[in-house]
Amino acid sequence: MPIAGQMIEGGLRLVRPLGRGSHSLVYFAVDSAGQPRVVKIFPAHLAAFANREEAHASRLDHPRLARVIGRTEVDGNPALIGTLARGEVMFTRYTQRPAAVHERRAFLLTLAHVLDGLAYLHENGLVHRDIKPENILVEPDGGAKLVDFDLAGPAFELLEVPTRFGTAAFQSPEASRGEPLGPESDLYGVGVLLGWGLHGALPDPEEPLPPIQDPLEGLYLSLIRFDRTRRPNDALWAREELLRLAGLPY
């Protein structure tokens, strides 16, 4: 187990744990020039996830996505070095619920930034495959970044064994079946988050949330359609529709 203050390869000093990724322990660190960094440490037996995230995320460069900028080792375990995304995880940031009622502008800015990042990711042929509050870091004004790409991969990737990607409460129906995933599956996760913001609760497929009089209710329902072929698959369109319906500039 790494310890606070430990120096690692590349002149980085681990400062404190920040949390856990899907397959990693995440540390706040400082490089030799005093710049803040994130170090994601993977157990040796999960090196394939480190390799995967490095291959996909190291070529991404967008203000709404955390960046992977290097690789190192910590006590023989593979580790990735990334830029620091500031803020709190989404559900910790929005404590007054429904968030779209109490902090409407900030909450919708958060979702618009997530959709910005997803549009760029999708344009580059990738899907995130784990849209959830823990992977969205939000600043006080609502500005947000999408993090944790160790489950990300090519859109509609065919795997040797069907794999259920994601986290159950935010997982699209096709993800729960282990099918290849496309952009519409990421947008399902955004829809779940929008529903949480509108209703103050997560939707239950077995017991739909009661409808409310909000101009964004229709967009929310379209994003969580069970049939993936009837669900929006364009993150840029979803972003513009979100802001249009809310009467915000885009």
Automatic annotation (TrEMBL):
Residues 12-250 form the Protein kinase domain. This is Putative Non-specific serine/threonine protein kinase. It comes from Deinococcus deserti (strain DSM 17065 / CIP 109153 / LMG 22923 / VCD115). ATP binds at K40. The lineage of its organism: Bacteria, Thermotogati, Deinococcota, Deinococci, Deinococcales. SUPFAM superfamilies: Protein kinase-like (PK-like). CDD domains: STKc_PknB_like. PANTHER family: SERINE/THREONINE-PROTEIN KINASE. It comes from the Bacteria.
